[in-house]
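Lab channel / #folding
Pinned by the channel admin:
"Please post every new chain as: sequence first, then the structure tokens as a reply. Keep commentary short and put observations after the output so the thread stays searchable."

First post following the new format, from NK:
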Amino acid sequence: MNLSEVIKGNFDDYFNLKRIIRLDNKKPIGDLSIIKQHDNEIFILDTKNTKKLFCFSLEGNLKWEFGSIGKGPLEYNRPTDFVINKAKDAIHILDNSGYKIITVDLKTGIALNEFNLNCYALEMVLTDTGDFLVNTSNLFDNKHLNYKLLCIDSSQAVISKNLRIPKNQEKKQYQTSRSLAKFGNNIFFTETLNDTIYRIKADTLTRAYYIDFKKIKYPEKLIIKYSYQKTKKLQKKRPFVLALDKVREKNGILNFSFYYGKEIYTVFYKIKDNKTFIFHTLKNGKTLSDDQQILPFGYINEGFVDIIEPYLLNDVKKLLETNKAYKDYLIENKPEVYNLILSTEASSNPILFIYEFKI
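Reply from TO:
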């Protein structure tokens, strides 16, 4: 991975705008933390502000919301993840602080039951056998469960363990990214201070990809003997890659993001051709601005999600008043974007732009 090869150019040369989803304003959403799709519906979990799970149609119409804060039955304190169970027409919501999973009906959002995990978990995926694979983020209360990944079945039994937590990492939660993800039948796992993307199949963890960051990788001596203070001190002296984020593999393309210093980079890797595309920002993008950050906030079937905060469109409206060439370009080539800019109020819910990488 060589950052001197970061691509410069026109956004539209590399990405197609597939869809714009304007979330209606029936209920305010604070933070679009996790976004997933099932059939013609998208599900959004706000983990920070409202702490609710929302269900929208692909047209952006709110169908239902679920959020019951508390310590009682079918209530949660800190939702951090959710999975869609197609076989049972249900959604399972992970309560990070309550050590449990709440199940709601996929069609109505009505709470059905809850499931005690008996272990700490920050993220989870549903395996093909219907079990919960959870990421403990190095935190555990039971010495027999000091593993980074635990697979738990419907009877609350731990049926498999992967990646024992080293002594120097025990109780040290330094996760900075989305580490556990499932797309199709593929489950991927990444961890902070590690350049490896793991694939998990049938309770077996194997190395799928190794990302060679060369001189900007995290120092080996600090991987062996992790120290938060030494890490912070080193970060001030020189930047390094701390973690991989939002790994996805689909249609022969592997993509992920990573943080280097204070900047975010996104990679699209064509597996068959062994060709790597590294993006940071692209100049002369004519969608919303002349300098567009390439950063997936999530994925739906058509591509990756970019979130546009409506209040930022005020500056674009002013630009349209002074830049006739830009205005004419949008009217002729992207009338939907032009109309959206003019009609969106600053207090509206976020807007989702869905992009597809041009293979």
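NK: The helical segments are 220-224, 228-237, 313-322, 324-333, 335-343.
TO: also worth noting, The two ends are 20 Å apart (CA to CA).
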